[in-house]
Amino acid sequence: MTKPPTALRWNTVAIYGVGLIGGSIGLALRKRKLANRVVGIGRNAARLQRAVESGAIHEFVTEPSKSPSPDLVVLCAPVQFLAEHCKTIAQHFPETLITDAGSTKEKLVAEIDATVPHAKFIGSHPLAGSDKSGAEHGNPDLFDDRLVILTPTQATPKAVTEPIASFWESLGARTVTMDPKPHDQALAITSHVPHIVASSLAAATPEEHLDLIAGGWRDTTRIAAADVELWTQILQENNHNVLQALQHVRSTIQEFETALAENNRDSLTRLLAAGKQRRDALGS
Amino acid sequence: MTKPPTALRWNTVAIYGVGLIGGSIGLALRKRKLANRVVGIGRNAARLQRAVESGAIHEFVTEPSKSPSPDLVVLCAPVQFLAEHCKTIAQHFPETLITDAGSTKEKLVAEIDATVPHAKFIGSHPLAGSDKSGAEHGNPDLFDDRLVILTPTQATPKAVTEPIASFWESLGARTVTMDPKPHDQALAITSHVPHIVASSLAAATPEEHLDLIAGGWRDTTRIAAADVELWTQILQENNHNVLQALQHVRSTIQEFETALAENNRDSLTRLLAAGKQRRDALGS
């Protein structure tokens, strides 16, 4: 007779970088009573203190080596620091499981494989976010029914993949695995290019016409309000794939331009129908 | 001593074309008890019968001249038929106030001015809609706190403008007036181009990646699901202004392409910040 599965319960989980995503992980762990202790790691003590006050973490350290030994560290800092943070954690806590929450995977995973091959690391990308930033906007239900993509390599042992998958599932998410490279190619069009499209439309709209917008403009530009620094990093990390996907969108826009210049009814209908067919395939 | 203003109450309002907008007008008139009789005019008796059953209209005629004499007719048919419908109504009911609910104004108003100069007509554009179509998706509160743009010309008497403005306000809307030409120029970017951008992004996303989309893609492409026939007509009616506004968006997209190709951090930040500044000016 096997025991029924029990919810994972961690002794200590550390969150390295306590912003919107890190704060939401802390709130989710505490709401679901999955960790005895949630430790924040970061440089800005005042910000970490606010994360304590908002209930996202129990305590914090500004020096990673001073953390109580964690079972799991989730790296939630800006993507350009993640490999360095992974290295620091693996040096001080060689037995600790490590994952991240970054939006791009190929460069990061390759860098960690090359520089910290023995780290018990697997890349994670939770498809969850907000147009707000900061732990004070954290949401314990942010991962509910969201997808988290895990990006193991051939070198990643199941002893790393499985507990990290269980970790995200315990926060309410579904998990899938993908190789890092196709992950970044797919996310270029499903996540990164939409920010460019939304931003370009917003920027092209004269401010004096903002009182004439309707619901469509509002929805289409919503993510143009996202954090500029974060999205600059993501676009830089994934620039080749984003460029390719963006060129694809732009060539469709140019087909619309030709159809408008010719006032070609059939072309306009065909182009609009192609977009509708794809959007309808998703559902609302 | 002047009397306090009283709510407008019409004897007979006719709605020529009972789809989503026309159906919502009927529902709003009836919910607010603003008309004794709401008559639908159209060609498709089965569809009009369903509009009776859904409560949008009291009765219908498929021959405009058979309508009980209306105080007001709201033309809600596809934009290419509106001038012809206006002419028909003005011939049979020369004293009747006439307005429309179309998304473009310059060509329509010019055509009516030229062909039916004595019609008691003023163009209206309610900035309200839905990604659904048909009277069965009508909503009596669709115009609540929405903007309706009236497009009088120099020939439009106040005796037409004022009661039509009051009509929309009695449905809960705010009204402003604009000349037809700047209306169409402004709406090109605030309403029409977003449909092209949303559609192009949706069409460029491979179907097998739809399970990897997050909230941003969902919002940005939402209006790609809109009615293809309706939007083909709108884009055709306003093709020159839409083309110009779309080229403006496309040139910003190409600036993003250059910044990505160069992996230019400063350019990416500047471009994203410009979009955020404009979007933040609107609020959520």
Short description:
The structure is a homodimer of 284-residue chains. Chain A has 284 residues and is an alpha/beta fold.
Q: Your description of this structure?
A:
- The structure is a homodimer of 284-residue chains.
- Chain A is α/β, with parallel strands linked by helices and 284 residues long.
- At the A-B interface, helix 6, helix 7, helix 8, helix 9 and helix 10 of A face helix 6, helix 7, helix 8, helix 9 and helix 10 of B.
Brief descriptors of the model:
homodimer; 284 residues; disordered N terminus; 8-stranded mixed β-sheet; elongated
What is the overall silhouette of chain A?
elongated
Strand tally of chain A, please?
8
**Oligomeric assembly:** homodimer
Mean pLDDT of chain A, rounded to whole units?
A: 94
Strand content of chain A: 5-15%
- Assign the structural class of chain A, choosing from mainly alpha, mainly beta, alpha/beta, alpha+beta, or little secondary structure: alpha/beta
The interface involving the most residues is between: A-B, 84 and 84 residues
Summarize the amount of helix of chain A as a percent range: 40-55%
Radius of gyration of chain A, CA atoms, in whole angstroms: 21 Å
Order of helices and strands of chain A: EHEHEEHEHEEHEHHHHH
Q: Total helix count of chain A?
A: 10
* Poorly predicted regions of chain A: 1-5
Strand order of the largest sheet of chain A: 3-2-1-4-5-6-7-8
Distance from N terminus to C terminus of chain A (CA atoms, Å) equals 44 Å
